[in-house]
Amino acid sequence: MARIRYVSSGVATAIALIAIGAGLTIGKVAFAGDSGDTGPGTSPVAGRKIDVITKATDSEFWQSMLAGSKKAGADYGIRLGLFGPTSETDIDGQVKLVENSISRGVDAIVLASNSSSALNGVVDRARKRGIKVVTVDNAISTDSEGFIGTDNIKAGEQAGQRMCELLKDKGHPDGKVLHESSVSGQQVLVDRFTGFKKGLAEGCPKAQISQTLVNDNDPNKALGQVGDVLTSKPDVVGIFADNNVSGTGAARAVKEKNAADRVVTIAFDSDPAEVDGVRAGTLSAIVVQNPFFFGYQGVVEAAMAVRGSTPPLNLDPGAVLVDKSLVDKAQFAQLLNPPKTSGAHG
Predict the structure, then answer these.
(1) Which of 3, 58, 119, 202 is in the most buried spot, having the most CB atoms within 10 Å?
(2) What is the per-residue pLDDT for 43?
């Protein structure tokens, strides 16, 4: 498992496997600044075409992934296309984007799939055309050249363990917890919830998940759902929000209902509204992934495959739990506020 390393200068780097040259070597993936001696003028993959397709372009998480891909493209002289549907619920739109990449004859595709199975057919067609496919964030149930993503069961378990600790601190180890979810059935979210329940049950076996609400990746809907629960169900003492949209909505609801002292709220990801929520106390903690790394390393591994090298089959950058005591530490600055860029819709 790859692990994130932070340097005192505040420039975060992730140690990753990079094999753009003759063989597999160890290199650095930089969030900012110089990324090493390899440059667009000397890269053996300069001019190759790689499309990066995220789950959505309306999310700062995916904009950070695109920024990572853009940095890798600039470092190695790769001709990049940056795309995504407007919403994570638009699976058909994402299928069309992959079909467009096939039609353009790209060399490789980096794909953050909105479904574990719905894009299998189009991915298979791409690979039959000789197009290399590297998946990130959400694994698919057909073959690809490699996968980069958080072990969401383990990350969810971290969230559940912290929820239990904080419920005990409030005297509610047997309390009720709301599960605020972004999309029904998406495997990464299923895994996070599985891990969360496991982590919660380890130390708080009598705690209960009171209900699961699905907000269709709409922060305003999440705000309304969580707000309604806080008003109508005073026995709910915990909230688990499984992505950035759910976390943003939950933080706003906790603030509006003045419920920060009453409930423990733990969310995934680190949109600015979530980071502000941790500072303000409306979010007790956030589980932070590394979307910039997903994007950079995705392009690197796609380029490896185009060159005929074998990228890692499964690479987990890990996740870190950040609370108020850590949110303003210098070593987390780049992770909590990575560069961002937008992509096209088609």
Answers:
(1) 119
(2) 84
Q: What angle do CA 163, 169, 173 make, to 5 degrees?
A: 60
Condensed to tens digits (0 to 9), the pLDDT of residues 252-273 reads 999 999 999 999 999 999 999 9
Is residue 328 in some structural domain? no
* Confidence check: pLDDT of 286 > 80: yes
Q: Alpha carbon of 230 to those of 57, 64, 273, 276: distances in Å? A: 31, 32, 20, 20
Domain shared by 116 and 64, yes or no: yes
What's the pLDDT score for residue 346?
59
The beta strand positions in the chain, using DSSP E, are: 4-6, 12-18, 25-30, 49-53, 79-83, 108-111, 132-136, 146-148, 176-181, 208-214, 236-241, 264-268, 285-288, 314-315, 320-323
pLDDT interval class at 34 (50, 70, 90) = very low
Number of domains in the chain: 2
CATH code of the domain covering residue 123: 3.40.50.2300
Asked, for residue 342, whether it belongs to a domain, the answer is no
CB atoms within 10 A of CB 1: 9
Burial class (CB in 10 A: 0-12, 13-18, 19+), 169: exposed
Count, residues in the chain: 346
Is 179 in the same domain as 125? no
Q: Which of these, 287, 291, 286, 289, lies nearest to 276 by C-alpha position?
A: 286
Question: Which two tokens mark 48?
Answer: 């190759």
**Domain carrying residue 210:** 152-288
Provide the mean pLDDT of the chain.
Answer: 89
CA angle 324, 325, 328 (to 5 degrees): 80
Which of 76, 67, 87, 85 shows the shortest CA–CA distance to 38? Answer: 76
**Is the same domain home to 189 and 297?**
no
Same domain, 219 and 280: yes
Q: Are residue 156 and residue 141 in the same domain, yes or no? A: no
103 domain residue, yes or no: yes
Residue 70 and residue 125 in one domain: yes
Does the reported pTM lie above 0.90? no
Residue 13 has pLDDT above 80, yes or no: no
Q: Which token pair is 237?
A: 């003492």
State in Å, rounded, how far the first CA of the chain is from the last one.
34
